[in-house]
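Q: Could you fold this chain for me?
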Amino acid sequence: MEARGKFDFTAVTDDELGFKQGDLVKIIHYDNIWCKAEMNGEEGLVPRNFLDIHFPRWFREDATRGDAVEFLMNKHVGEFVIRGCRTSPGNFCISVKYEQGMMHYRLLRDKRGHYFLWREKFTSLNKLVDFYKTNSISKSRIIYLNINGILDQAVYHNKQVTRHFSQFHLYSPRTSVVSRLHFERASFISCLSGIDQCLFFLPQTTSCFQVMAVCDFPAIQDDELGFNAGDVIEVLDMSHPFWWKGKLKGIIGLFPVNATRPL
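A: Sure. Below is the predicted structure, expressed as structure tokens.
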């Protein structure tokens, strides 16, 4: 969430973030007195009364997943809520209304603090929303983020996203299609109609197949494999489309496919 400095603020302690009047800062966690913010790759605390903040109606940091489902239940296709991630404080999730049900994605952040869902990266949530207002947030159908609640996307319901595979050469029948989605595993069960898919082209043998982490992933569940950006993970099992089993530094666990890329 973006905010603009109303006055100059000079950081006094190491955990504070200084800025000038008119500077654009990114709010990571909102508080009535001190907010956690980021600017130019640096994070720190900033005084709320030094900032000019306008919250759009789609930003609901304290909303739970259940709150988002209830809010979006009778909304138009493409309406959405960005909310704080309860399992990973300081991060955000986006819940989007689809034709049938809804999808929940965790928004990832790289080491520079940029947000991303697929390949495109954004310096703020506002810029991410602006991008997906005119670019489909789904990879298997056309779904634009709808911020005004009146856009009728029914005309897109029967359209398919055209993918061009001519530039790829399928060397082996073992080449498989896997889904590249968010971290919240429970939503796959309730929203199978909204599964997005893209291609990973795998080697003929998976006995020594490796992937590299493109962002940090903190393990939340006991069966998950945590890692940092740049870690190389040995893939042990790719039978699940969204979560693979891997090994890193002697630890075995599940990790999300969309947080890695093939080597």
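A (continued): The helical segments are 65-72, 125-132, 186-190.
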